[in-house]
């Protein structure tokens, strides 16, 4: 298609887009006024009175970011509809998070996820994990801000730096004013905008391509519907196994132990609300996933005879979706602006969640450790100041994201390299009672080293086409004669080591699995070499026996799998975990600790505690 035929942004598009920022900022102002007298604890966790509905929408909006809105349709356009298999991974991830991780975090009464690591292991492990999370989140947020801004700038002429700074300023504004409640309710609004934007593209795109039957036929002829590829080769980019297995580990690192997710779950009024939020969130994830995949198929049907990327009408795959939108909606003032609002809704929700989570872990894991006698007023001001600091940091980091390649792969690679070892670390604490502090620290180091070795190596030595297998694209129907292509062939052949062709060519979705496996294996080995923790010495509410998830097992067999841990000792629902090293806590916490801890440490496997 000719570039001159494309529409550009008009005043109505800017009005629609500006409404997104105005409403988002307004929600922040509303909660700033409404909650102005509440202490900093409520600022960071919403007073632990949130319900499942808005939290579910917030979770969906935060992790279905502009990476999904722009990157997923492009991925389907180039590689086919196997992207829909992420629905399998999402299902496993949500079930594991709701039944395995959230109960432990919720009952522990923590604000920072990494506080658990100090209670279970030691302060050093907690500090290391917090620093890794901060690095991971700032890097990921940079991708989320920069990539859609660049794609929209180059296709629609939308101002690049204006959109980046507007995103950073607005997110920082409503995070600083309204805290977690503003983030959650703004995310809920932005989730609605994302769905409306997608539906607009789906309806108009289907109409332009001759109907749903035509789209399906063209996609089938172009091999875009060859979804189930059961090749077990771990070097293949997307197969059933890489997506369902590797994707599960990648997204479990994002959902199961990520501060941004857990913070919103523990903000719910009850554990049941927290679990329901995750299950309702699964429905939202599947809706957005289906919309993204069908958008990619419709886009392929529309460009089946003239691929704009090969024809160099766009310079990167991530620009395909906005280019397509401008072509089908450019004649309708305001609708391109609606799609841009859809993309930036994902960006705003993710950035806001990141800023709030970064402020929380920094306050809980560093500030409170250094300044133990802060007043509520001082705590509130420090929390707001941290939101501003991380808002600036995330916005600044956006520039570096231009060197990270495609947005989907870049974003999931970052999460995989950091999230896998973090998932392994928390699994060592929650699932394996024998893990000691040395095992946790050593496992984390080994896991980070292994996953970064694979991830950074793949960045330097990209995988060959034989593993990524992009599908064919056509320029037969283009109006202009193109004398060059941007195909996948290499103009020069250079020597690649066996390491580059195998280890570095592994699917990016396995980075998390590699980090997880290395962390757990090394952690258990080091623990047994250095003297493992006795099962009887671990507080049962810091563990979650996997066998308990299988309700059809008898109590006798479940007890056999408890490995000596006394899960009969129940922590009262209204009592938060008390850590005597902090020398602080309410009277009920201290009484509960003094009453049960001595008995608990002395009890034999057959002791029944009151």
UniProtKB/TrEMBL annotation:
GO biological process, one term: sodium ion transport
Localisation: Cell membrane
MF terms in GO: symporter activity
Membership in a protein family: Belongs to the sodium:solute symporter (SSF) (TC 2.A.21) family.
Gene3D superfamilies, alphabetized: Sodium/glucose cotransporter
Protein's name according to its UniProt entry: Solute carrier family 5 member 12
Keywords: Cell membrane, Glycoprotein, Ion transport, Membrane, Sodium, Sodium transport, Symport, Transmembrane, Transmembrane helix, Transport
Membrane topology annotation: Multi-pass membrane protein
Pfam families attached to this UniProt entry: SSF (PF00474)
Alphabetized InterPro entries for the sequence: Na/Glc_symporter_sf (IPR038377), Na/solute_symporter (IPR001734), Sodium:Solute_Symporter_SSF (IPR051163)
Chief localisation class: membrane
Gene Ontology CC terms, in alphabetical order: extracellular exosome; plasma membrane
Segments crossing the lipid bilayer: 12-33, 54-72, 84-106, 127-152, 158-177, 184-203, 238-257, 278-303, 338-361, 381-404, 410-432, 444-464, 508-529
């Amino acid at each position: 298609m000719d570039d001159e035929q494309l529409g550009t942004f008009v005043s109505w598009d800017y009005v629609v887009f500006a409404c997104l920022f105005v409403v988002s900022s307004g929600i922040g102002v509303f909660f700033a006024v409404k909650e102005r007298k509440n202490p900093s604890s409520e600022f960071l966790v919403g007073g632990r009175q949130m319900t499942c509905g808005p939290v579910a929408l917030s979770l969906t909006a935060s992790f279905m970011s502009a990476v999904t809105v722009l990157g997923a349709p492009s991925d389907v356009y180039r590689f086919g509809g196997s992207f829909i298999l992420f629905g399998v991974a999402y299902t496993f991830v949500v079930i594991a998070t709701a039944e395995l991780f959230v109960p432990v975090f919720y009952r522990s009464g923590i604000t920072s996820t990494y506080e658990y690591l100090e209670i279970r292991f030691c302060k050093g492990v907690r500090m290391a994990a917090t620093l890794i999370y901060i690095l991971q989140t700032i890097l990921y947020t940079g991708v989320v801000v920069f990539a859609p801004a660049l794609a929209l700038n180059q296709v629609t002429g939308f101002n690049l730096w204006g959109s980046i700074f507007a995103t950073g300023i607005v997110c920082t504004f409503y995070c600083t004013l309204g805290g977690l409640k503003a983030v959650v309710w703004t995310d809920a609004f932005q989730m609605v905008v994302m769905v409306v934007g997608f539906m607009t593209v789906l309806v108009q795109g289907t109409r332009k391509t001759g109907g749903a039957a035509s789209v399906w036929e063209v996609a089938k002829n172009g091999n875009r519907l060859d979804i189930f590829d059961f090749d077990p080769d771990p070097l293949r980019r997307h197969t059933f196994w890489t997506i369902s297995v590797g994707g599960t580990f990648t997204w479990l690192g994002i959902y199961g132990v990520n501060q941004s997710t857990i913070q919103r779950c523990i903000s719910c009024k009850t554990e049941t609300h927290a679990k329901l939020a995750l299950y309702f969130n699964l429905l939202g994830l599947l809706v957005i996933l289906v919309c993204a995949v069908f958008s990619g198929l419709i886009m392929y049907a529309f460009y089946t005879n003239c691929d704009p990327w090969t024809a160099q009408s766009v310079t990167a795959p991530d620009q395909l979706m906005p280019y397509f939108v401008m072509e089908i909606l450019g004649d309708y003032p305001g609708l391109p602006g609606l799609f841009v609002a859809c993309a930036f809704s994902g960006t705003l929700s993710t950035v806001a969640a990141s800023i709030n989570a970064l402020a929380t872990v920094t306050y809980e894991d560093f500030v409170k450790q250094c300044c133990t006698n802060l007043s509520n007023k001082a705590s509130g001001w420090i929390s707001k100041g941290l939101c501003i600091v991380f808002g600036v940091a995330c916005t600044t980091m956006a520039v570096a994201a231009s060197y990270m390649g495609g947005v989907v792969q870049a974003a999931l690679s970052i999460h995989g390299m950091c999230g896998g070892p973090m998932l392994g670390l928390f699994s060592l604490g929650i699932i394996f009672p024998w893990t000691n502090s040395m095992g946790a620290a050593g496992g984390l180091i080994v896991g980070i080293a292994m996953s970064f070795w694979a991830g950074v190596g793949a960045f330097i030595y990209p995988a060959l086409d034989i593993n990524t297998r992009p599908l064919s694209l056509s320029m037969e129907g283009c109006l202009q004669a193109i004398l060059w292509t941007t195909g996948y062939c290499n103009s020069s052949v250079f020597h690649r080591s066996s390491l580059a062709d195998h280890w570095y060519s592994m699917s990016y979705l396995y980075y998390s699995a590699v980090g997880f496996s290395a962390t757990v294996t090394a952690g258990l080995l080091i623990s047994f070499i250095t003297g493992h923790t006795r099962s009887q010495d671990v507080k049962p509410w810091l563990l979650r026996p996997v066998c308990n998830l299988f309700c059809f097992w008898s109590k006798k067999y479940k007890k056999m799998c408890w490995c000596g841990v006394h899960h009969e000792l129940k922590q009262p629902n209204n009592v938060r975990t008390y850590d005597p090293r902090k020398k602080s806590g309410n009277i009920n916490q201290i009484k509960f600790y003094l009453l049960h801890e001595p008995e608990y440490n002395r009890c034999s496997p057959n002791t029944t505690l009151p």
